[in-house]
Amino acid sequence: MKIVIPAVPLWFACIFLSLTPLPAAELPHIQMVNGTGQLIVNGRPFLILGGELGNSSAGTAAQADAIIPRLAAMHVNTVLMPVAWEQLEPKEDNFDFSILDHWMEIARAHKVHLALLWFGSWKNAFSNYAPSWVKSDPKRFPRAESAEGRPLEILSTLSLETRRCDNRAFAALLRHVREKDSEQQTVLMVQVENEVGYLGQGRDRSPEAHRLFRGRVPEVLIRALAGKRMQLSPEFASHFNGHGQSWTDVFGDAANEVFMAWNYADYIEAVTHAGKNEYALPMYVNAQLPAPFERAGEYPSGGPHPYYLEVWRAAAPSIDFYSPDIYWPNFEYWLQRYAIPGNAIFVPEARMDNAAYNAFYAYGQARAFGFSPFAVDSLTAPEKDGDPKPPLVQVYELLDSLSDLLPPAQAAGLTRGLVLHATSLRPTQTVALGGYLFEATLSRSWPARTLLTDDGAMLILQVSPAEFYIAGSGLTVSFARDPDVDAGIAGIESVEEVSRTSGQWTTERRLNGDQTNQGRQLLMDAKRPHIYRVRLYSIPSGREH
């Protein structure tokens, strides 16, 4: 499979490398550059090497003392931490920020940033992080209902009172962060709620939901979708009828999920707006994606699923970007589904067991500004010198050394990435960059040709017309001229294993002979990631040599 993304001229990257820092008072924000979303912190693109804490790992001050120094030593520069409504406001209108303050203090001391995860009305569809005074009063704070009329452990999206109280708590959180952190900017962004959606048969079946579902689709939604008809996902476009009136007329078989998406997005827009009125940090929502063959309601119906993102964008304009939580094997597929115009790519949750490989794809091919495997606090440092570091730590160590080079290269279209597994449908993958093809296969022994690893990945960064830094492991890479550019031939001029510290490159080994298959291939270490500097040469077609 050949993946081609047009590259911007090299001079374009230099513009970003020479950006003048802006005043520190400028808030973190998202900007789109050449179709690439960047998180701007203190006037510079910031690359998040992130990790999300386990759900119960941020509930005490002592946990910050134990976790943050350890993660900082592992090159995690941003920790995604839950902030639970029940803990923030245990009694109505009585707020307690003491634990959050300690986390900010310890993070700041170790030069680690935070992204706050607001576990408010919903977390993983359910409402178990709401305060007890909310959960115990279903008359004031009504629930969504099942098809049998049974109240669920899911707060209704339609309750104005629940929305008012969630708004108030979220605004108080952002106001406090502004007062305590606006100068230091330890907190970079906020996730609003968590993996929202209705679990049950398609949609909320409460009387109020029935009444609204039988009514007309809001005209503002129909107009927004009609105006973006060519941008709708194929799956959604096949259902949309802009000339109907009822939810079923307009959206057909997708009506239940679109109805829930509109109501969740409308609720979260109000919460987001209240928070941004206090402190306008970047804010995003995340999606729990379906397992194969799951239907809406088996996965949270109405969440920011890629099929229905235009519904969310119409209802929640204050949300800065939409992010997938990817736990399924088809990581590349789901990330591609969020690569829509105007959406910055960030992965807030991913499986830890293959995160070391998927990070290369996320930053290189998807041009993500951040990647964050779940339960990062489960990582343990080596017990003694010489013991191997966890795979993610090895990868983050390399990416940390490239963190100033990657954002401008991403914006200039000068990065690529790929992942290969023993279970991949194709044994090879090819990406094109700078007039060259990079064909990768998994590393094999010689001469037996047995697999040395089940997984391999690489990130390619072009720094001159024929010079590339390639970070990764587990692959054998061959090079050729891209026939879409010219019909010449390509060869390896040199391969070096390099490292970078404080912006200075060091050549660790110059590779040749058996280490490059007699100058024909890049043979990556099968198990441990490295950075390789590869210089290529090309000969035009028909030239004598």
Describe this structure in words.
It is a single chain. This protein is an alpha/beta fold and 545 residues long. It folds into two domains: 48-217 and 257-411, Alpha-Beta Barrel (TIM Barrel), CATH 3.20.20; 415-539, putative beta-Galactosidase from caulobacter crescentus (Chondroitinase Ac, Chain A, domain 3, Sandwich). The protein has 16 helices and 25 strands. The strands form five sheets. The protein has a nine-stranded parallel β-sheet with strand order 13-15-5-6-7-10-11-12-14. It has a six-stranded antiparallel β-sheet with strand order 16-19-20-25-22-23. Helix 8 packs across helix 12, helix 11 (255-278) packs across helix 12 (309-315) and helix 14 packs parallel to helix 15. The longest helix is centred in the middle third of the chain and has 24 residues, at 255-278. The two termini are 31 Å apart.
Helix content: 25-40%
Unreliable stretches covering 5 or more consecutive residues = 1-24
Order of neighbouring strands in the sheet with most strands: 13-15-5-6-7-10-11-12-14
Largest sheet: 9 strands, parallel
In round numbers, the mean pLDDT is: 93
Write the layout of secondary structure elements.
Layout: E1 2-3, H1 10-17, E2 29-33, E3 36-41, E4 44-46, E5 48-52, H2 61-73, E6 78-84, H3 85-88, H4 98-109, E7 113-123, H5 132-135, E8 143-145, E9 151-155, H6 160-181, E10 187-194, H7 207-214, H8 219-227, H9 234-237, H10 247-251, H11 255-278, E11 283-288, H12 309-315, E12 321-326, H13 331-337, E13 346-347, E14 349-350, H14 355-364, E15 370-371, H15 391-401, H16 406-411, E16 415-421, E17 428-433, E18 436-442, E19 455-464, E20 467-473, E21 475-481, E22 489-501, E23 504-511, E24 522-523, E25 530-539
Parallel strand pairs: 1-17, 5-6, 5-15, 6-7, 7-10, 10-11, 11-12, 12-14, 13-15
Antiparallel strand pairs: 2-3, 3-4, 8-9, 16-19, 17-18, 18-21, 19-20, 20-25, 21-24, 22-23, 22-25
Helix pairs in contact: 2-4, 6-11, 8-12, 11-12, 14-15
